[in-house]
C-alpha cells in the first residue's frame, strides 16, 4: 500500500516510542516528524523527568503537554535524542537544518549518548547533497561565506526572512555532491562566520528509523 510521506513520518515517530525509558530526560528535535512524536508523548508526561529541546517551536509544544523543558546545562547525562533529518545515507550521516534549528540540534546530538533519527523513506539517499545543505552564519559574514562556498563548487542561497533562534541567518548550499561528509563538515566548520554546518557526519545517528510503504525499516 502506498503511504504518503506524512503517514510514513507518523509510523517512524510511533516506532521511536519504544526507545523511551521511565524517568529519563529526552532530547527532542524539530520538524514535522518530531511533531508527530511530541503528539504521542501525552502518556509519557509524568514518566519523563523532562526534555531538552532543540528549538523554541518544540519547547512550546512540549510545555503545552506539561512536559518540563530543561536547560541542557542542568542535564549532565542525556541518554537519548530523537530528531528528524532532511537526508540520510546508509552510514546514518545526515543533512539537517531544513527547519533552521541545526545549531541547537547539533548541540543536543553531541550531548546525547544515543541519537535516534526518524525519517520517511523519501529522505534516504546513497550520497548526501540532493537536499541543499543548510549553514547557519553570523549575519555580517553571509556574503563572505557564500563566496567561499562558490569556490568549493556550491551555490549558496540566502534563506531570506528567516532568523534562527540564535539570531543568525541561513544559507542553503546547492550543487554539492557530498562524497566525504566528515571531511566537508570539518572544512566548512573552519570558515570564519559559520556557526553550524548542517552535516551530521562527525556525530551521525546511532539508529535510523525509516517509515516505508510496507512498515518500519531500521538502519
Ligand atoms: C530542522 C531539521 C528537521 O529535522 C528536518 O528539516 C526534517 O524535518 P521534517 O521532519 O519536517 O521533514 O533538521 O532543522
Fill in the keyword field for this structure.
single chain, 219 residues, alpha/beta, Rossmann fold, Alpha-Beta Plaits, 2 domains, four-stranded antiparallel sheet, 6 helices, 26% helix, binds ribulose-5-phosphate
Low-confidence region ranges: none
Supply the CATH architecture of the largest domain.
3-Layer(aba) Sandwich
Question: Which ligands occur here?
Answer: ribulose-5-phosphate
Strand content: 25-35%
User: What's the arrangement of strands in the largest beta sheet?
Assistant: 2-1-3-6-12-13
CATH fold title of the largest domain: Rossmann fold
Q: For this structure, what is the CATH class of the largest domain?
A: Alpha Beta
3D architecture notes:
It is built from 6 helices and 13 strands. By secondary structure, the chain is α/β, with parallel strands linked by helices. A 6-stranded mixed beta sheet has the order 2-1-3-6-12-13. The protein has a 4-stranded antiparallel beta sheet with strand order 8-9-7-10. Helix 1 packs across helix 2. The two termini are 22 Å apart. The mean pLDDT is 97. Ribulose-5-phosphate is lined by residues 29-33, 83-86, 96-102, 105.
Summarize the structure.
With 219 residues, the protein is of the alpha/beta class. The chain has helices spanning 5-16, 32-38, 56-65, 102-111, 142-151, 181-189; strands at residues 25-28, 50-53, 78-83, 87-88, 94-95, 112-120, 133-137, 155-158, 169-174, 194-197, 199-200, 207-212, 215-218.
Amino acid at each position: 500500500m502506498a503511504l504518503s510521506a506524512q503517514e510514513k513520518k507518523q509510523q517512524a515517530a510511533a516506532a521511536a516510542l519504544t526507545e523511551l525509558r521511565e524517568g529519563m530526560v529526552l532530547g527532542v528535535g524539530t520538524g514535522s516528524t518530531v511533531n508527530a512524536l511530541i503528539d504521542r508523548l501525552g502518556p509519557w508526561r509524568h514518566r519523563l523527568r523532562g526534555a531538552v529541546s532543540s528549538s523554541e517551536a518544540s519547547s512550546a509544544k512540549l510545555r503545552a503537554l506539561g512536559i518540563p523543558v530543561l536547560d541542557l546545562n542542568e542535564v549532565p547525562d542525556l541518554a537519548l535524542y530523537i530528531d528528524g533529518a532532511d537526508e540520510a545515507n546508509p552510514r546514518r550521516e545526515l543533512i539537517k537544518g531544513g527547519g533552521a534549528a541545526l545549531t541547537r540540534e547539533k548541540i543536543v546530538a553531541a550531548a546525547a549518548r544515543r541519537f535516534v533519527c526518524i525519517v520517511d523513506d523519501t529522505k534516504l539517499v546513497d550520497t548526501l547533497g540532493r537536499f541543499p545543505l543548510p549553514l547557519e552564519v553570523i549575519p555580517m559574514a553571509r556574503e563572505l561565506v557564500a563566496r567561499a562556498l562558490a569556490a568549493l563548487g556550491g551555490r549558496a542561497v540566502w534563506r531570506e526572512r528567516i532568523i534562527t533562534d540564535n539570531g543568525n541567518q541561513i544559507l542553503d548550499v546547492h550543487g554539492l555532491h557530498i562524497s566525504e561528509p566528515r571531511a566537508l563538515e570539518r572544512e566548512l566548520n573552519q570558515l570564519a562566520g559559520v556557526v553550524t554546518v548542517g552535516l551530521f557526519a562527525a556525530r551521525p545517528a546511532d539508529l535510523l528509523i525509516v517509515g516505508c510503504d510496507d512498515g518500519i525499516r531500521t538502519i
